[in-house]
Structures are given as C-alpha cells and as structure tokens.
Design a protein that fits this description.
Helices cover about 30% and strands about 0% of the residues. By secondary structure, it is mainly α. It has one domain. The longest helix has 15 residues.
Amino acid sequence: MLARLVRAQANALQWTMNLMPRFTDVGPDDADRAAIESICDWGIATSEKTFNPENTANWGTLHRWASALKLPANPGLNAKDVANRPLTRADAVIQLWKMLRERGEWLNEDDSWLQADNDHDEDGRNDLDDPLPFDSNNNSVPDRLEYLP
Ligand SMILES: [Ca+2]
Ligand SMILES: [Ca+2]
C-alpha cells in the first residue's frame, strides 16, 4: 500500500528491484518483492539482511515508514498509547488515504507534460495526439497506478 501510494504521487519515484533479492527472506518470486525493495530504496533505509515480511506492523511502524517516505504522517500515529497497537489493513488504508488528502491536489513540478512537442509516456505519440498520454503500454491504466508496468 505504501509503495503504491508513493507511486501515485506527482513526479513519482521509479520502481526499483535489484538483480538479486536484497533480503534473504523475500525471495526472487515473492509477489511483494518489488514493493518491499522499492520502499527500502526510497527511504526506509535498512542494512539488515532480513525484512521479516510476516512481522506484525503497528501504528508506530506506519508512522515511521510513512515519515521515511516523506508522507505527511499524523504524529498521533506515534503517540505513546497508540504506537504499539496492532495495525489492520483497514486502519492502514484509512491513514494512507488521510495522508493523500493532506497532500492535496498537485501538478507535476517539471511542467513537461501535455506540451505540444512532448511525449510524456514515451510511446511514440506526442501528448496532444495521445488519447492516453500517461499510459506507456496503452492498457488504459495510468503507469503510476500500475504495479511494475
Ligand atoms: Ca505518448
Ligand atoms: Ca499502463
């Protein structure tokens, strides 16, 4: 969820995945490997050899990771009486939605898209002639919302 939220933002960071798995407990065929390795490269720096993907996440984990990814995490997530509470998927989604709302609407900072001579998604059709200017593989899903397009 965190990786997808980061990717959904303007000027999103690119997915990263090492040739060899970065963690001994997140194998080459793990469906979450790209998300795990990406969020670590994007800001959740760790020198550990293991990621412990089955560990229980708590509200403090969400605060720590969201903050590391420069998302506007509510300080209340890390409050003494809250941080150690188990985090459900529903809790996480609600909190990430709040962070997304906190960011507000935005435009790409580089101002390079939807220009006459620009091909933002590099599919060979200039933006103004491209019915899907943010969809490089033209599958009707904007690239930023795809999992490893
Ligand atoms: Ca294009
Ligand atoms: Ca696409």
